[in-house]
């Protein structure tokens, strides 16, 4: 079975070697790959956000909520994601914090739901104006 997997991997590598790069300049190819990956990541992130938020609020309102994010919310989210993806201890700290926040919100479910709905409405309004 290991031989079969190695043969498939070799065949895939040979096929990849035969596909020409978009540009003869390797730096241009690196820039194109970076742009493609960042664009794909942004589209995937937006789709996941809309899916998670839209299940409760509806797709249109979810789009407005995402659009209404402040610069501070974006920077904090990016910083937390970077800490979580840089190291195992960072992932543990961020994951533990998210778990603690979720459990805290569940304990205070009525108050947390009311406060969250007010915040979402405000953010959706900012998204309408943007």
From TrEMBL:
Give the organism, scientific name: Novosphingobium jiangmenense
Q: Origin, by domain of life? A: Bacteria
Q: Where is the composition biased (Basic and acidic residues)?
A: 7-17
What protein name applies here?
DUF4235 domain-containing protein
The annotated region (Disordered) lies at: 1-24, 111-130
